[in-house]
What does this fold into?
Amino acid sequence: MSEASPIFTRDLFQFLVELKFNNDRAWFAANKARYEQHVKGPFLRFVAALGPKVQRLNPAYTHPRAFRIHRDTRFARDKSPYKTHAGAQFRHRVASEDVHAPGFYLHLEPGESFAGGGIWMPEPAALKSVRDRIARKDTAWMALRRSRMPLWEGDELKRVPRGFPLGHPMEADLKRRNFITWVDFSDRQVCAPDFLARVADAFRKTNPLVQFLGKAMGLKG
It folds into this structure.
């Protein structure tokens, strides 16, 4: 795919907007050809083109996974059958089946597109390993914080987690439960010819966090 040619068009966002207001199986079945043409097909081609760039950036992340549009509603209050965004994650080769492992992520949604990565809701053992490194003022973590990289806010613990003293100098970061950073994109940017380069650059900015998390969890490479 040439970076001079845009792969996404406004039709992608138009479909997702309509799906938001017609989120049922009958409407989706009637519009499935539009989904294949304007969302699924272009998205899979884009992820395939992005793969070599991710591999050059961080060779351990060789497993791209485009998420299905079907929602898992078994334990959800919202029984809408379809997601209203397109998403893909590049996972570490050792943890390619673990959606909660660190990785790079691409998300396309009307007015809310972004690319970034990190780790979302890690298992307790993995989370403790990350916190242990933060508590020791790991040099990679301190460099990340000095860089003023944006990190997800809003779901932190109210108290320092068990095993760490009150008043710890890294208290604010030890309270974190998720470690995510990102770069936002407008709909216009997603449909521009240079979007592949923009996402690759967003992943480059994300890579120090992904590397730190991988080392904290003992992932090789």
In short: The radius of gyration is 19 Å.
